[in-house]
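Researcher: Structure prediction, please.
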Amino acid sequence: MSKMKLSLVASALVGAVTFAGSALAADPLEQLQAAETTINKAAAKSQTKINRIQEQTQEMALEYRDVVDTTEINRVYNDHVAKLVAAQNAEIASLEAQIAEIENTKRNVVPLMYRMIDMLEQFVQADIPIKLERRTARVEKLRELMVNPNVSTSEKYRQVLEAYEIEKDYGTAMEAWEATETFDGQEITADFVHVGRIALIAQSKDLKNAWVWNNNTRSWEKLGDEYLKDITLTIRMARKQAPLELIKLPIFAAE
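Model: Predicted structure follows.
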């Protein structure tokens, strides 16, 4: 073989070896690059999953906190409602006891009111006849009130007490009024005046005659002329037509 051919063969071998070496060197690099790319993509996917899981975890944590807060609120509210229910039950029990007591009191009060009205009627009949017709009518009205189903027991009791209060006031008041009465067998229109319960006096309109009520004999007694001036003044004072001053009146000793 000539030298020229040997050189050509050697050159070809060297080129082949060089090419093969280059190919062998390029494949691992590409593989590394591909592997790196794959790893990066996998890492990116993993990070995305991690981020999503983290977001879900935060959402679950927030939901859990909301549930815990709601549970605490519900617990506090339920405790509050339970206390309200207990208080209401106690109040209901108290009201039921009061109603029972009221019914019991009502059973005792009604007979008492009837006795009070009877006593009031007896007192009016035994007392000096100050505005007798009005007082008698008041007692009769109380009797009618007691059988009125539209009036409560408390209102009936109030009116009975009010009648007693009015009767009490007659003992401290000085009042004058005009009325017609029978004196000495003759019907006469006169001015009447009472000073508490110590004196009930009548004077004719012409100021010439006067009478005093004697509760012992349950009758009117004629007075002497010496009382006429003081009786006239008493009537004027009762009507607030004259200032109060000392007067002389016939009275009967208290019993």
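Model: The two ends are 183 Å apart (CA to CA).
Researcher: Thanks, that helps.
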